[in-house]
Write a structure and sequence with these properties.
Rossmann fold; 3 domains; six-stranded mixed β-sheet
């Protein structure tokens, strides 16, 4: 029998797929109005655990009990979510227990407006008429802080920013005032200020509605700021749990200590070697990037307007140094990166190793050997149909076509060894496919692909934001070692202040397309002058 204040008690939960157990005999409770964080790396079983509570995991064998009680059924005792009929559980889903999924762009239906999607939940679960449901959807959007809620309700998911899509997901989850909210990495895809706003919103709504929250995350900063209690998962086991302050101050399990110690470490050479002194791998002067937009009304018949994404950016990246560019989504930092790669038209001056980008693609072949890129999500940037060998050797086929197959294979093996991937560790390495590797290993493949033609500059577009904290630390250490050994320069695009502090020599802070502050990284982050920079640092 559960305690009077207990909302959910999970007892001896086991989850198996095809006879292989991935969640092993775990136990935890959530009290009414409590915020519990389930923490662990990718593959630890935390998301499977949360989805199993509502039996949303396909082809899974689920054993144990998940005893759920609300004030409505407290007199009758708790119900077991894992053994109750599907029809009864369907009534609980969305009404008593709701869920926020990790990536709102894939969780929301692209064919319907966000207002219609929220109204559908209200209509099905609360039985309101269509007109009432539409008004309720607008109110829910307004309650989550979306400006112009009535207009935004008519927007499709792709027309909203990342933060607005996440707020729409929260509005949908809260449509029926649930007593328990399962939030699966609700801030992973958001920049630091939006992350803070969503956390504050969830905390406010949780207090107002008396709602309990089970937060699934690998972000320890988020746990420290949001949760009351924390349960740490490793390889399907809960290895430690307790009050957040106690666990963070006195971690008992080695895995918990490993997670807490995974903050990025600064290990870069601040001086420039004499041989490289004065050299520059990229210079930009008054770079401006603008997109044409349609002007509404009569004036739009005669001329088009423009949206200026980058305004007057000037910077210099010396050899062996890192320039970090930080800002929120929409600040222009990724647009600046694309212009630096010659993938967007721009005005102003932009040179790499003394060569300027040309509007004619054929003329840019030489400069593309100097400048390479590592993208944010290695799973989407690596072709799933190509083997490791084909992926990594691709640059050699373009820039060194005279090499024979044996020479290319030797270069591929050397490049993979440089990033810590070798045949002894991964038998059949060259013939494997990207899906056979973890997220951190895939990012190492992406780095090997970029390095194989010996570039001078890597553009790193959020290279660790999709990775767990321990894997992030490993990838950053790899990039720092490669910079020291090869004298590489980096243009690092990120919204993570800790990554900038660990990696960068100089930093540019961008807001609404403008560089609002720049300088030596430790001077800017330790004593920010611009109000926006102070907000970024404080939110981190």
């Amino acid at each position: 029998m559960t305690a009077p204040t207990s909302l959910l008690r999970v007892e001896n939960l086991c989850v198996s797929f095809a006879g292989r157990e991935v969640v092993h005999d775990i136990n935890f409770t959530i009290a009414l109005g409590e915020k519990l964080a389930l923490v662990g790396e990718s593959g630890s079983g935390k998301t499977v655990t949360a989805l199993s509570l509502l039996r949303l995991v396909q082809n899974a064998d689920i054993r144990g009990q998940a005893l759920f009680a609300t004030p409505d059924n407290a007199s009758k005792g708790p119900v077991d979510l894992l053994s109750m009929p599907e029809g009864a559980l369907r009534g609980i889903r969305g009404r008593d227990i709701a869920m926020i999924f990790q990536e709102p762009m894939t969780a929301l239906n692209p064919l319907f407006s966000v207002g219609d999607q929220i109204a559908e939940v209200v209509q099905l679960k609360r039985g309101l008429a269509p007109a009432e449901s539409a008004r309720a959807a607008i109110k829910l959007l307004a309650d989550t802080g979306i400006p112009e809620a009535e207009r935004r309700a008519r927007s499709f998911p792709h027309q909203l920013s990342g933060g607005q899509r996440q707020r729409a997901m929260i509005a949908m989850a809260l449509a029926c005032s649930p007593k328990l909210l399962l939030a699966d990495e609700p801030t992973t895809a958001l920049d630091v200020t939006l992350r803070g706003q969503v956390l504050d919103l969830l905390s406010d709504l949780q207090r107002r509605n008396g709602m309990a929250v089970l937060m699934i995350t690998h972000d320890l900063n988020l746990v420290h700021r949001f949760a009351d209690r924390v349960a740490v998962m490793e390889n399907g086991h809960i290895v430690e749990q307790g009050a957040v302050a106690d666990v963070f101050a006195h971690p008992q399990h080695p895995y918990t200590r490993k997670l807490i110690d995974s903050k990025p470490v600064r290990d870069v050479v601040d001086g420039v070697a004499d041989a490289l002194a004065g050299a520059s791998t990229m210079q930009a002067s008054h770079v401006r990037v603008a997109y044409p937009v349609t002007i509404s009304g009569f004036r739009g018949w005669f001329k088009s307007g423009e949206f200026v994404a980058v305004k007057d950016a000037t910077f210099d990246i010396p050899s062996g140094k890192t320039l970090g560019v930080i800002g929120e989504s929409g600040s222009g930092k990724s647009t600046l990166a694309l212009a630096s790669l010659g993938l967007l038209p721009f005005s102003g001056q932009l040179q790499a190793a003394g060569q300027s980008w040309s509007r004619q693609a054929a003329r840019n072949k030489a400069i593309r050997r100097v400048v390479q890129v590592v993208f944010q999500d290695p799973f989407s940037s690596l072709s799933p149909r190509m083997t490791v060998e084909a992926i990594v050797e691709e640059g050699l086929l373009v820039h060194e076509p005279s090499l024979n197959q044996a020479e290319r294979r030797w270069r591929v093996e050397q490049s993979l060894a440089d990033v810590g991937l070798e045949e002894t560790q991964f038998p059949g390495l060259l013939q494997r496919y990207p899906h056979e590797f973890s997220g951190g290993q895939r990012q190492r493949l992406a780095i090997a692909r970029a390095l194989i033609i010996n570039p001078s500059l890597l553009v790193l577009d959020e290279p660790t934001s999709a990775l767990d904290v321990t894997i992030q630390k490993q990838v950053l250490a790899l990039l720092q070692r490669l910079q020291r050994e090869r004298g590489l320069s980096y243009l690092l695009i990120t919204h993570d202040v800790d990554v900038i502090r660990a990696m960068a020599h100089e930093v540019m802070v961008m807001k609404d397309g403008e560089v609002v502050e720049s300088g030596r990284v430790l001077e800017v982050l330790d004593a920010p002058r611009h109000p926006y920079t102070r907000v970024l640092v404080s939110q981190a």
